[in-house]
Design a protein that fits this description.
The complex is a heterodimer of chains A (about 270) and B (about 260). Chain A is an all-alpha fold. Chain A folds into two domains: about 190 residues, no CATH class; about 60 residues, no CATH class. Chain A contains eleven helices and two strands. Chain B folds into two domains: about 200 residues, no CATH class; about 60 residues. Chain B is built from 13 helices and no strands. The longest helix of chain B has 28 residues. The radius of gyration of chain B is 23 Å and the shape is flat. At the A-B interface, helix 3, helix 4, helix 6, helix 7 and helix 8 of A face helix 1, helix 2, helix 3, helix 5 and helix 6 of B.
Chain lengths: ~270, ~260
């Protein structure tokens, strides 16, 4: 990687440390500083490398112990960028050190947005969906597939994010958002995510009625009628009803308990 | 379940739970992974895998973004699957136990965040003193110690909950068990609805229905739906972007990437 991103051997060593430490961002999350402690922890190798006087170091520790919150997988872009800014600040007396935090704060929101929709919203759903469909049959492969599908792309982003942030600098982010790339990535992730969720609605909820109506001597199997209208009609309706109720502010746990009650009640009256 | 097994499950869970946050969420602290581990420790990995799949489906939409407090799916899944496996019960028992436990568990997560915050004044002092070794020590300790109340509760529930669970399960009439079993197939709807709440937009609804149609009418397996999705995402995003005059869609996409990384 040293070649591609044009970093020196020492910088490479330091960036590897930053990579390992950036992953821990959320480990000490709290409501006041959020990932603040994690951020200082990530920057310690950088601060100790670039600053000589104790005063400067203390200023830098304090600078990074401020409120910060983003998707840890995407955090590398920002810690990498902070690293390059700290490097500049240590070399250039005139450098406005306030800009380091200003940049951090301006990036954490957009990066959390992209990170949450790509990693939590899409990749996680796909990997878990694939894992579940194999695990349902009792196969250990489900678990393995889930871990690989999720972690290979995530690892690449975690690792190269630090290098990209460091060597591409703040221009990189500007460029990426100017040519609409970040928006495109988010949109692409949304497409894959929604298709997978649509597929899961039909393949993973089983909602069949066993009720048979008797109309003037003819037996009418309700489920067959429903299937001829649209297969998986009931799972879809159930999902949209749940969606509406959640949007109205119903707690998920209440909804789950209601479904348990409905299940028992339906069995008693012979609907299911 | 012996006390030793309960202890092992608790410690393994503590490690997984710590590693999840320490390694930027590799998605190991999920029912799909936790239940097979519990199954392995209790000597029935297959039961663990199957329970994991069902519980994962139900808790699919539970995720923690931006410090919100969802249900504690992990704790629910561990206690639910462990007690169901020891008492020889099926998935619906795991489910009945997991749902309320996950609700109680979220209180422990809140407690952990509060404990994490208690060290803030001390961390400020460490910064003031320039004691970076101290900062590292605090970060490492706080990454796992505040979970102690949750872990102790888990151990107690596992070590002493079996008999109680057995008697409760025995008391449940058959029709109720059948109903709960049926409900366990309905409950993924809640998880999916939670996902939709995050992802849904009218403009993108089309793609949701494409997934629905592919499965309902063509019986396409999930992995194939995801592949079609990836292709479609490329077509839609790259097509919109490319000028189409002299470069093909794929080429222009490649170029954008190269441009980004070669800067």
């Amino acid at each position: 990687m040293t070649k591609r991103f044009q970093v020196t051997k020492e910088e490479d060593k330091m960036l590897k440390k930053v990579f390992w430490r950036t992953m821990t961002l959320s480990s000490t999350y709290n409501y006041e500083r959020m990932q603040g402690l994690g951020y200082v922890y990530s920057m310690i190798p950088v601060i100790n490398e670039y600053y000589d006087s104790k005063e400067d170091k203390i200023k830098a520790y304090k600078r990074h112990y401020e409120i910060f919150n983003t998707t840890p997988t995407m955090g590398g872009f920002i810690t990498g960028l902070s690293t390059s800014m700290e490097k500049e600040a240590s070399e250039d007396e005139e450098f406005d050190k306030n800009s380091i935090n200003a940049v951090k704060l301006s990036l954490m929101g957009p990066f959390a947005g992209i990170g949450d929709s790509i990693f939590w919203g899409t990749l996680r759903i796909i990997s878990l969906g694939l894992g579940i469909s194999l695990a349902m049959q009792g196969s250990i492969l489900g678990l393995i597939l889930h871990l690989l599908v999720y972690n290979i792309p995530s690892f690449l982003v975690r690792y190269y994010g630090v290098y990209a942030g460091f060597s591409l600098g703040s221009n990189f982010i500007k460029k990426a958002s100017e040519n609409g790339m970040l928006g495109q990535i988010t949109k692409g992730a949304q497409i894959v995510g929604l298709m997978t969720v649509g597929a899961m609605t039909c393949s993973m909820i089983s909602f069949d009625l066993s009720m048979v109506l008797n109309i003037q001597g003819t037996e009418l199997v309700v489920q067959e009628v429903l299937d001829s209208i649209f297969p998986n009609l009931l799972p879809l309706l159930l999902t949209f009803a749940s969606y509406k109720l959640l949007n109205k502010g119903m707690k998920p746990i209440i909804l789950m308990i209601s479904l348990m009650v409905i299940g028992v009640f339906g069995k008693i009256i012979g609907l299911f | 379940m012996s006390v030793v097994q309960a202890l092992i499950i608790t410690l393994v869970f503590w490690v997984i739970n710590w590693a999840e946050a320490w390694y930027a969420y590799p998605m190991i602290n999920t029912p799909l992974v936790l239940c097979p581990v519990v199954g392995l420790i209790l000597g029935d990995p297959t039961a663990g895998i199957i329970a994991g799949a069902s519980l994962q489906l139900i808790f699919l939409g539970v995720m923690q973004i931006g410090g919100t407090l969802p249900a504690d799916a992990s704790l629910g899944a561990i206690i639910g699957s462990a007690l169901a496996i020891t008492t020889g019960q099926s998935v619906e028992t795991a489910l009945v136990l997991a749902v309320p436990v996950s609700l109680l568990g979220s209180a422990f997560v809140l407690l952990k965040y509060i404990i994490n915050g208690l060290v803030n004044p001390y961390v400020e002092k460490l910064c003031e003193r320039g004691d970076w070794k101290g900062l590292e020590r605090v970060h490492i300790l706080i990454s796992f110690l505040p979970d102690a109340p949750r872990m102790i509760t888990l151990f107690v529930a596992l070590a002493f909950g079996t008999a109680l669970t057995q008697s409760v399960v025995d008391a449940i009439p058959e029709v109720v068990q059948g109903g709960l079993d049926y409900a366990s197939n309905l409950m993924p709807a809640v998880g999916i609805a939670l996902l939709l709440k995050m992802m849904w937009s009218t403009r993108m609804a089309l793609y949701f229905f494409l997934g629905v149609v592919l499965v309902s009418y063509f019986n396409v397996p999930l992995i194939a739906v995801a592949c079609v999705g990836v292709v479609l995402a490329f077509v839609v995003t790259v097509e919109n972007k490319g000028d189409g005059a002299n470069v093909s869609a794929v080429e222009s996409g490649k170029e954008a990437e190269e441009e980004l990384f070669n800067d």
